[in-house]
């Protein structure tokens, strides 16, 4: 037996259920309370009162006579199974004089009981009921708060589960590339594609970890895109890389049909890769072993159109309208998909729409395959060449003498090695005190400082540099995992010129170096 475990209709939530000694008492009570704006419903029996209570009630008004025999215990049993937020007020109209066994049983079995002796003034009865209904309203408010908290917790759990799933995807190509590079000696040219693959997957993971640090933003759907001009063919290739392990595990034939000259779109490379990888993953999971998956990239009326077609389980006609809703899974496909969270297509739809695009699903029915079509706005010009990127990075870096400071030796030395390759002169320090000593002799034009170092942290080191008679004019870049607004404010106040997040993005670092050069700081 459950009492109001879910929200009852508004017209039931605050009604007063009456079970009086006589029909005359019921009629009089109903009329009096109606004049005071209190809605009532008369119950012909205690059994009916308990039944109506389960549908929703603001309070119970019961005559003592109706609790005789097993009545008090029956009512107490019904009230005892309320949900945690509920404490239904029960008002008992008692006969004047000595306490009865029925009232004692009711008070022992129920927490929120008020005994009113008859005869009772109308004003007192109305006042008591209004107080009871005010308390009941607060209980409903508490229920709403608990429901909101539960929903927020569920959304956070959904996000974390999705994030764990998304982090596993780039691990497969990373693991494969590492296995190849550690087991076989390759020329630099032969190894380059594997390094590029690993770089793309690491970038994908970094973006996902950054999203984890902003979990509240994600659960509210406030994902910020990092837009840029993209070659759609490259995005599709990246998605295929992510999904290849699932495709291969299902022994599927995957055919990718892309134009020789890639269509140009504006978008977030990682997010669009996530969109098409999720669609490919779904195709692989919902297609029986040895199936076929085709990817088509086409142009249509100012849009790039990507169609992903499979020979899998298909989608019933009555599910096509709901397939993108949260938690919706086609009946009978959970086993084929190895479970699944039922939120992947919802995320895909949200990301496509954030890019100004649309997505639709089509299927001829169960076991007849499915096709997902994504339309994205095309740029009105061709792709710009970016062959100058590496040269410009090297030109900018070569202007600097850079002091890299990080208590993580691997992080400091690998960053310095990268900057050396770009033509910079570098020195490395592993603590604040070490950095101050080396800077005296090295005379850096720029310092790239970690913030979370033991002892003297990066902010204190920056203040020391700014107070130094010879080093106060050097450029300072914070390279750290701390990226919240309060962190950025604290770092800026310490005297830093720029704030970059780990791991370093070469384009962002080059842009920071360029700005420092333009200001004459480095």
Percent strand equals 15-25%
Strand order within the widest beta sheet: 2-1-3-4-5
> Could you tell me the number of beta strands?
17
- Please write the CATH class name of the largest domain: Alpha Beta
Give a brief outline of the structure.
By secondary structure, the protein is α/β, with parallel strands linked by helices. 48% of the residues lie in helices and 17% in strands. It has 3 domains: 10-147, Rossmann fold (3-Layer(aba) Sandwich), CATH 3.40.50; 228-377, Histidine kinase-like ATPase, C-terminal domain (Heat Shock Protein 90), CATH 3.30.565.10; 388-518, Rossmann fold.
Keywords:
3 domains, elongated, 522 residues, single chain, Rossmann fold, disordered N terminus, 5-stranded parallel β-sheet, 5-stranded mixed β-sheet, alpha/beta, Heat Shock Protein 90
């Amino acid at each position: 037996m459950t009492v109001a475990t879910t929200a009852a209709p508004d017209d039931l939530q605050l009604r007063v259920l009456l079970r009086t000694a006589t029909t005359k008492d019921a009629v009089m009570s109903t009329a009096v309370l109606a004049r005071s704006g209190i809605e009532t419903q008369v119950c012909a029996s205690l059994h009916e009162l308990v039944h109506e209570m389960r549908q929703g009630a603001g309070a119970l008004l019961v005559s003592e006579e109706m609790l005789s025999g097993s009545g008090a215990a029956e009512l107490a049993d019904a009230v005892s199974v309320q949900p945690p937020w509920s404490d239904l007020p029960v008002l008992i109209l008692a006969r004047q004089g000595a306490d009865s066994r029925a009232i004692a049983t009711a008070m022992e079995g129920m927490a929120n009981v008020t005994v009113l002796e008859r005869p009772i003034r109308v004003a007192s009865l109305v006042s008591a009921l209004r107080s009871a209904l005010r308390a009941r309203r607060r209980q409903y408010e508490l229920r709403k708060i608990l429901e909101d908290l539960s929903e927020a917790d569920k959304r956070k759990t959904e996000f974390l589960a999705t994030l764990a799933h998304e982090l596993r995807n780039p691990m497969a190509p990373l693991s494969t590339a590492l296995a190849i590079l550690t087991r076989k000696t390759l020329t630099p040219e032969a190894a380059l594609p594997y390094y590029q693959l690993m770089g793309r997957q690491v970038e994908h993971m970094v973006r996902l970890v950054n999203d984890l640090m902003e979990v509240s933003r994600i659960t509210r759907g406030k994902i910020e895109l990092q837009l840029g001009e993209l070659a759609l063919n490259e995005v599709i290739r990246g998605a295929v890389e992510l999904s290849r392990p699932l495709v291969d595990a299902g022994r599927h034939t995957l055919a990718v049909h892309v134009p020789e000259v890639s269509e140009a779109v504006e978008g977030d490379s990682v997010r669009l890769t996530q969109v098409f990888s999720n669609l490919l993953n779904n195709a692989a999971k919902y297609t029986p072993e040895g199936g076929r998956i085709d990817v088509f990239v086409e142009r249509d009326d100012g849009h790039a159109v990507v169609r992903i077609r499979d020979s899998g389980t298909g989608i019933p006609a009555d599910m096509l309208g709901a397939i993108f809703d949260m938690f919706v899974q086609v009946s009978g496909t959970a086993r084929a998909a190895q479970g699944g969270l039922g939120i992947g297509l919802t995320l895909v739809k949200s990301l496509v729409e954030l890019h100004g695009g649309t997505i639709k699903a089509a299927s001829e029915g169960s076991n007849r395959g499915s096709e997902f079509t994504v339309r994205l706005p095309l740029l009105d010009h061709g792709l710009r060449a970016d062959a100058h990127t590496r040269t410009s990075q090297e030109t900018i870096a070569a202007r600097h003498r850079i002091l890299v400071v990080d208590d993580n030796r691997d992080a400091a030395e690998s960053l310095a090695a990268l900057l050396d390759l770009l033509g910079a002169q570098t020195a490395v320090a592993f603590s604040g005190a070490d950095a101050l000593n080396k800077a005296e002799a090295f005379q850096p034009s720029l310092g790239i400082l970690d913030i979370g170092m033991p002892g003297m942290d990066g902010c204190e080191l920056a203040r020391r540099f700014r107070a130094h008679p010879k080093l106060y004019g050097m450029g300072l870049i914070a390279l750290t995992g701390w990226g919240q607004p309060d962190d950025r404010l604290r770092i800026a106040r310490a005297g830093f010129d720029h704030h970059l997040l780990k791991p370093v993005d070469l384009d962002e670092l080059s842009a920071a170096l360029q700005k420092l050069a333009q200001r004459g700081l480095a």
